[in-house]
Amino acid sequence: MHQEQPKNPLHGVKLEQIVTRLEEHYGWAELAQQININCFKKDPSVKSSLKFLRRTPWAREQVEQLYIKTFCTWPYNAGL
């Protein structure tokens, strides 16, 4: 059964959408400055980033937090 999550700004947003939107907004070079991970620095692509982020929870958390900070409006990012 589908449950609503009104307080979760990432509900219904796929990781691929997050990475794509951040890359379009910042570009790979700025993403690498914001989050220091090699998948954004060396031969970056959405595909390689997704592979890394799905296996690396701490990096995925940082990407999700940057997405929330950048695109989600109050009250979601009020405490960030």
TrEMBL record:
It holds the Pfam family VF530. InterPro entries: DNA-binding_VF530-like, SAP_dom_sf. It comes from Pseudoalteromonas qingdaonensis. This is VF530 family protein.
